[in-house]
Structures are given as structure tokens and as C-alpha cells.
Amino acid sequence: MALNGRRLTFAAFLVAGLWVPSARAACVNCHESQLHYRSIGSCVSCHGGMEKTDRKAIAHTGLLAGRFSHHLIPASDHVKRGNEIIEAFSCRRCHLIAGKGNRLAANLDDAPLRESAQLLLNSIRAPSLFMPDFEFTESQLTDVMNSILAAAKNRTLRDTANQETPQVIHFEESVPENSSAFEKHCGGCHRVLSASAGALGRSNTGPNLSGLFSPHYPKTFEGRKTWTADSLKKWLRNPRALNKTTRMPPVEKAAYSDAVIWAKLTDELSAKH
């Protein structure tokens, strides 16, 4: 009787299409003409999913779309272009990527372990509060995501099990103007993610200053130098002496002294990596 029960169960699996009695992956039943990169491995080696079933809903469980699989190809052009975009737009001034960067926003080495590639792409396409809108094209978004996935592919949840999870919380409510020197003197034009005080500022009129003193911020000071407390003081004293086309007026001495001192003492814009 038990034997008959096992036979019935086996037959049920065949009828339901939950098991394919062949070494041939069920994926090729629908995607025969799209087979490529055979040297890398099977369909699931790159795309995930479940290859032993003909049931589409089950086969596509955890599926990684083709546009996000380029990072698995050695010397991928998509990853190369993505790396260049990440450098050009200074993403590491807020994010940790490939072990380098500041921890002012999401750790992008760990994020792919918890969220889908599509969800992460959507968060770049429609950024949250205080994240700049870079207005990337779809091809640029694909390249950036492949670069992020390439950096994270050797990470596992076990790698972060014994690490303290950083708590980065940014509230949408406006901060009272007198809450800090930054809000009082800079927040009318600039925004910043800070290590000590969270998200500050109310406008995107001026550049986002997150990670200003770190090596990951764009080298936009005179002669393409990195920003320091001294260079910030020099800039605030008379911006137009350094850049004749800037719209930023000189800042009163008391104001710029407060802003710079506040930035230094609170670890506001310091590098983390």
C-alpha cells in the first residue's frame, strides 16, 4: 500500500509538471532560441529560478532578469561602464560599494542579499528623500546595477551576521532652523546626509554636500582638489573669488565659522572608508 502511495505521488508530480525526468532543463522548452554562454553553466547559474519544472510561476521563482545577469560574464562591458558611472557620480560619498565608501546611506554590498535587483533599480530611478535624482537612462541603470551586483556577488548573509547593523534613519519632517549651524546657514540651498544628525537641508539649489570631506566626494575645489575644512573656509569667505560664475554669495565670518566647526565636531562629513 505504501508502495502504491509513492507511485501515485510520483505520477502526480509528472502530471503537475513539478518534475522533469531528464537532465535537460525545462527552461529550454520556452527559451531554446535564447541559449547562450553555455560555458558559464546552466540557466540557473546566471538567472536563478527552478529548472526542474514546466510550471512557469514556479520556474521563475527568484528569477534574475537577463539585464541583471551581465555581471556574471567575465570582463563584462556592462560592469565596466557601471563602475565608471559610479565613479563619475561619486556614489560612494554616501554608499558602501565593493568595500569602499561612506556609510551615510544603504550598504550596497549587502542590499542585493535582501532586495531584488529590480527593486534596487527602481530606488535609483525614483530616488528617496535626500538622494539626488541623477536622471540615468535605462541603459545606464542596467550598467550601474550590474556593477553593484558584481561587487556584492561574493557576499553572503553570513558575512554580515556578526557585524553591527548601522541604523541610518532619515525623517521627512523639516528640522527647526536653529537645530544646527548647517540648517541655519546652509540648509536653505543645500542638503546633506550626516553621520551624526541624519538628513539636513531643505533645497537642491546648491550641490548635495553628503560626504564632502571624504575622498569619495567630487574633487570640485580649485585645481580639482579634495575638500577640507580649510578649503571650505576659503570658499565660504568669498566663493566668487574662486569661481566667478557661482551664484553663491560670500558668507559672514561668524556663519561660516559656525558651519565649519559644527561639521568637524559632529563628524558631519568625515570619511568612513
Characterization of the model:
The chain has 273 residues and is mainly alpha-helical. It folds into three domains: 47 residues, no CATH class; 89 residues, Cytochrome c-like domain (Cytochrome Bc1 Complex, Chain D, domain 2), CATH 1.10.760.10; 89 residues, Cytochrome Bc1 Complex, Chain D, domain 2. A two-stranded antiparallel sheet has the order 1-2. Strands 3-4 form a two-stranded antiparallel sheet. Strand 3 and strand 4 form a beta hairpin. Helix 7 packs across helix 8 and helix 10 packs antiparallel against helix 12. The protein is elongated. The protein starts with a helix and ends in an 8-residue tail after the last helix.
Describe this protein with a few key phrases.
273 residues, mainly alpha, Cytochrome Bc1 Complex, Chain D, domain 2, 3 domains, two-stranded antiparallel ribbon, elongated, disordered C terminus
Structural class: mainly alpha
**How many domains comprise the coordinates?**
3
Q: Give, in order, the helices and strands.
A: HHHHHEEHHHHEEHHH
The strands making up the biggest β-sheet line up spatially as 1-2
Amount of helix: 25-40%
